[in-house]
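Worked example (supplementary).
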Amino acid sequence: MPELPEVETTRRGLAAHLEGATVTGVVIRNARLRWPIPENLPELLSGQAVISLKRRAKYLLLDCGRGTLILHLGMSGSLRILPLATPPVPAGSQGSSPKNIVAPSASCFERGGMPGVSPQLRCDPPAIHDHFDLLLDNGKLMRLRDPRRFGAVLWHEGDVHAHPLLARLGPEPLEDYPGKNSFDARYLYQATRGRNVAIKALIMNNHIVVGVGNIYACEALFSAGISPLLKAGKLSLARCDKLVTAIRTTLSAAILAGGSTLRDFVNASGNPGYFQQQHWVYARAGEPCRCCGAPIRQIKQGQRSSFYCENCQKG
DNA sequence: CGCCAGGCCTGCACGC
DNA sequence: TGCGTGCAGGCCTGGC
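After joint prediction of all chains, the assembly is encoded as:
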């Protein structure tokens, strides 16, 4: 699900609730995501103050000073802020309680009197796919839901950008790096030279540019008037410029609309995005092109569906 | 039942 | 032999 606009929408919704708060506990209901959630996360995170929530590509980076919590939403993940039903007891006033550290098997059902769960951990009952909670001292919690479990929750100490998952990523499409490797026409032109791969696959390659998934690859190629089948090496500098602009404007417009919700994406407040109403081609197979009226075509490229208008997009 | 779905890492085969 | 490259597979669940 989440491509860059959905992840950025999530980040913006979460940041104010997380930054400045202190982690009081962690609940792991199912550690089996794409990689296992580290078992010792409760010990690592409890008592840590959240400094910032940033984004790199489709990863959310929760800087806790001592280390960084790396979050990825995979295909079906979403993160929400929820209130704890009962405000947490202020630190130090609770004598015997051990810092709200919760074992993975613990849950926070409101009903049912689940044994071993202290009152301050009660909240909305988690659903079947709510795998992970971060409990905060401001009376809120951040909850990860991920039915398909392609997402990730990882911990990294030291420079997070040196993490193996981040170290080799290409430039951010919406940022400029003065002097080097900004995602501009010249960069894309260089990156496409000698490449036989279809342009659609190339712009979805994280080593070239990050954040462009299947939806926005299709939409940006339509916007630039470029066929998804065109071999990357054939792109002229002028068309690279068009494509860079199309990627930037498409992603920016999607962020403004709160992302695309096809089935289950919700932002930090639990609300859907609306950019799918502005899709020109994605998931519109057989429907008339909003530009020329020709039917939108759907083809397969490397196991993924591509949607495009044969008339408006040239090879 | 089979097929499809927003991501992305890994491993393989291939050609220079 | 050693690469860069381009595929295919795999991880999962839910919905049509």
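Two points are worth noting when inspecting this output. Strands of chain A lie at 23-28, 52-56, 59-63, 68-72, 78-83, 130-136, 140-145, 152-156, 297-301, 304-308. Chain A has two domains: 4-162, 185-308.
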